[in-house]
Write a structure and sequence with these properties.
With 404 residues, the chain is mainly alpha-helical. The protein contains 16 helices and three strands. A three-stranded antiparallel sheet has the order 2-1-3. It starts with a strand and ends with a helix.
Length: 404
Amino acid sequence: MGSYNYTVIGKDGKQKKGTLEADSRDLAIGELKVEGDTIITLEETNALNANINLDIGGKPKPRDMSVFCRQFVSIVDAGVPVISALQMLSEQTSNKRLRDAIVDCKKAIEKGSTLADAMRAHPDIFSRIFVTLVEAGEQSGSLSKSFDRMGKQFEKEHTLKALIKKTSIYPIILISVTIVVVIIMLTFVVPTFKDMLESLDTPLPGITIFVLNLSNGLKKYWYIVASVVGLLIIGYQLVRHNPAGREFLDKTQLKIPRVGDLKTKENAAAFTRTLATLLATGIPMMEALAITAGTLSNVMFEKAVMAARDAVSMGSNLSMPLKDSAIFPPLVYHMISIGESTGDIDGMLDKVADYYDEEVKEATEQLMAMLEPLIIILLAFVVGTIIMSVMMPMASMYNALDKA
């Protein structure tokens, strides 16, 4: 079987390019004509004209998923069947893993599977909440609404991650520069003054001795330093993946000034947004709470939601156990209480989610703005200390010579 590159004009008048597998050129031509396409070029693939795919197959980002959802809604709302919609989306999706998952879903549906069951076979691409919403949409005949809700969910997630990435670039650069500068000064600059400083006929200040010893130790035992750093990173990952360790880290995280406030708002936004999305599509409260708990980044909030779920199963309102958890901001359970009274709990949750989305953006910007001057001060202190350790004994020597 050979591979053929083709260029055709489709029924819609648009030019399309691609590659297909066929036993012969004639069969390739026949396959293209079956689709009603007008063939412009068709040539066998070789080393010179092969389509090189540089996509390494990374997991699709929230932006990829948002685009996928919104395109699906547009196509299906135009009256296109789901199978045809998936075929169209697979041809224009750039992420390889998402594209492959869409193709697999299309094949599964052609064999009689539901879309939700087909997506459930790709948990690394389609999250539990996504599959649940799709299943509810298929059962209620509102599949387009489910995809629209998930598109908004992914868009919010993309916006937040983009903001964090944007605001953290400068602090990360400063930290990197600080580390590089310190290493260069200790391994290359300070050693050039070592012999001269030690030959001075004057006692060396404690700070100079400390810096010289630090420089000497870093040059001789750099592999030990690197090993310790590596072990610390590995140790952190092991602790993070241990249930007790994760709980300790997440609990500590909430106690850190500014960081704890940011994480609280971040989890409050995720909780209200996800729960509103699930309830709006008809998912039962108990199931919605269980799914929502699994989407939260901090285990303390996850445990609070699961405890609230248990309380709700016993007949309690949702607002009361959230209040008793003493971890959710008052606005969350007060607004939920109003929603329970008015019968519009998902609407209230949406409003709270919008509020905390903005709060998360503001808190992130404030945290990064606070870190920038602190990092600059730290850089100035470290570099200044090293420079002082070199200059102080030289200044003492010059003062002694002037007095002589």
